[in-house]
Each structure stands twice: as structure tokens, then as C-alpha cells.
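REQUEST FORM: STRUCTURE PREDICTION
Request ID: SP-0412
Submitted by: Lab K.M.
Chain count: 1
Length (residues): 105
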Amino acid sequence: MEKNGACTVDFKNRNIILHDGGLFYIDSKRVRRHKIIGFKKLSNGASEVLFSKKATIKDINHEAVLWFEELRETINYLKRLERFLNSQGYKTNPPFNKKILASLK
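STATUS: Completed
RESULT:
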């Protein structure tokens, strides 16, 4: 892994790990979710998830918060990171695919 300012680059797994407090703030909230009790097959072939009305489980919601004031700095940092990865021989942009673009319309 290579340190690069506000993140760590893992070249082996092709991951960019953004650390809390570097580019954004990670907020964690404790929540209670309804327990999944099963699935119900629908007539169109899809499945519906069935939740318990009484049983709940404890969970944690993680949210990344970006500050408005630092948005331009964050975008510039990510552009510099992209240039760095490209200079190391890693492609950061997937090839343009007209079929994917046509399916979005």
C-alpha cells in the first residue's frame, strides 16, 4: 500500500481507502431495523422481502459527510490522485461504451 495524503492506495487489490477526516467525515448512527423473516414469491417471478412487525435488530448506519466549503479542494485532490494512478500505469477511466450510453436513454 502507498500513502497519498488523505487516502491509502492498495495497488494489489486496486482499492482506494479514504480515511475518516481526510476528505470527509464519517458519521455513525445507531438504528433499529425490522428483522427479515422470509421471502414471498410473486406472480411475476420476483420476490418480496417479508419483515417482522415486532422483532428488531440493532444496526449502525454509516454516512460520509462532505463539507460544501471543501468540495472544490476534494475534487482537485481526486483529480491529482487520478493523474498519479495513471502515471503509475493504472487505468482509472473505463473505455467509453456506446451500448451502455444507449441503454441509459
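NOTES: Residues 27-62 form one domain.
Reviewed by: T.R.
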